[in-house]
Every structure is written in structure tokens, then in C-alpha cells.
Amino acid sequence: MNPESEAATESEQTEVGTAQRSSDVDTTAADRPLGTPRVDDAIIEARDLDVYYGDTQALHGITMDIPEKQVTALIGPSGCGKSTFLRSINRMNDLIDVARVDGDLYFHGKNVYDEDVDPVALRRKIGMVFQKPNPFPKSIFDNVAYGLRVQGKDDGDVEGKVTTALERAALLDEVEGKLDESGLDLSGGQQQRLCIARAIATDPEVILMDEPASALDPVATSKIEDLVEELAEEYTVVIVTHNMQQAARISDRTAVFLTGGHLVEFDDTEKIFENPQSQRVEDYITGKFG
Ligand SMILES: Nc1ncnc2c1ncn2[C@@H]1O[C@H](COP(=O)(O)OP(=O)(O)O)[C@@H](O)[C@H]1O
Ligand SMILES: [Mg+2]
Fold first, then answer.
1. For residue 158, how far is its CA from the centre of ligand 2 (angstroms)?
2. Where in the sequence is the domain holding 150, given as residue range(s)?
């Protein structure tokens, strides 16, 4: 895929994230999992979302409102569909041949699966950070500037934007004066913060993180956790973690997915960990399975 040629067609597309809330967004509570009143400040609204890989259904009827500028954690046992749900938000599942999505996913009230949505533009508004840090074999500066250049936005103050992104990703102090060194020479934790800086540089509204600290040592993990909490002042963060303590520490709301691809409970993080409504969630939280 050539991102530059895809970007060229973008002007013909509806700008994502600017649409008015569409009137057909379902606002009834009937099909919501436990503890999920509709939130007024929802930036992302999933409605009866199913995802299939070939004939296998990985997610069943996910209905969920993700609040703006908060940290929403997705937890649950391996294989329950956390990564699949995360990828459905910015249409990364499009890149998997056998994946098929049914149902609706609204971003600012616009269905991201509408025909006039350009997935490349969508992914700049809804950036993603993966489990394994994946810097490009380029300088630290070029890693962060990459998104801006692809976007054709390097006419302005690239240096300023790179510096700001590195600062927001809590990496600037550690790399100042060596921005021309390779991103691959950084430690694992620094590489992950570099990837976060790269995602931030294009000025997204939402940052999706798929177990961003699970390949890192405890010190680097704690830096990422602090950073996630800071980022939520400016961005909406949706983070998958298999570490329940991490979800409890850093998230405002927690969604519990359980085996088979069902969202079983979604509520304030405190409530999920202290007083879950579902017995299955309580069993999972207290370590009886999973
Ligand atoms: N690319 C893929 N092709 C086929 N099946 C997949 C693919 N990715 C995930 N799956 C299946 O979908 C289910 C959910 O996977 P995943 O979303 O990765 O779960 P989690 O992130 O919670 O561990 C699993 O059964 C997994 O095997
Ligand atoms: Mg996963």
C-alpha cells in the first residue's frame, strides 16, 4: 500500500471527525452490557458490532460508548477479542483479508464504515501504538516527522511539531541533542515513547494502545503508565492490557471482554474492580479463571 497515493484522493472524501452526530445513532439502552449507560461525552460509539475472521465470529454485538479525554481500558483473557475491537475503531481490520465487520462504529457521530470515509485519514485522527515498539530504521527526528511528511504537512514548522510531540511523549529530555541518531538505538521503553510521539505528531484525537507496556521492564512500564494518564488530558486513550493492576491504576473506565468475544461489563474502573455486577466478571477479576 502506498500511503501517499491514498492520501491524494483524500480531498474527495468527507473529513472524518467533523460530521454532526447522525440522527440514526441508537440511543436506547436495550442492548447494552451491564453498567453501560449512554455517556453524553462519547467520542466513539460502537453499535452491535460483530467481527468475523472467515467463518469464525471473534466479536459478538459489541455496544459501547467511549468517553472523550478519558482512559478506557479493555481487559479480558487472551483471545477474547480485545485487539480485534481496538482495530475495528480505526479500521485496521481492513488490512486483514479474512476480516469482516458488521454493525456500526461512530466517531463523532459519523460511521467510520461509511463508504465516503478514507481509512488513511481516519487513522491520523485515531492513531495506534502496538505491543512491540516499531520505530522505522530512521533518525529519531525522521520517525516523528514521518506522519507529517506523508500528510504533506511539512510546509510549516516541522521542527516545532517534532519537539512538541517528543515533549508530550515524555521523551524530549532523553533525546535532546541527538535527534539525528537512529530510533533503533534507543532502549525498548524509549522506542515505545518514540512510537507514541510519532502517533501524536499528526495531531490525533484518539490514541489506541494494544498492550503498549507488555514487552517492557517495570521501570519503562511505569513511565508509559504515567504518560498514558497525562495523555488523557488532551487525547482519548483506549488501551488494551492483560495486566489488571495496570487497568486499575491508569484507567477511568474498564471494559471486560470474556471468552467468545462478548463485552460482559463496562463501567467506572473502580466499580469493575470493587463491585462488579456480573459473577463472571467477579470470577475473572479475582483470578478464578483466565
Ligand atoms: N488475523 C486473524 N485471522 C484469523 N483469526 C484471528 C486473527 N486475529 C485474531 N483472530 C482470532 O480472533 C479471536 C480474537 O483475537 P484477538 O482480538 O487477538 O484477542 P485478544 O487481543 O483479546 O487476545 C481469537 O480467536 C483469534 O484467534
Ligand atoms: Mg491482543
1. 34
2. 41-285
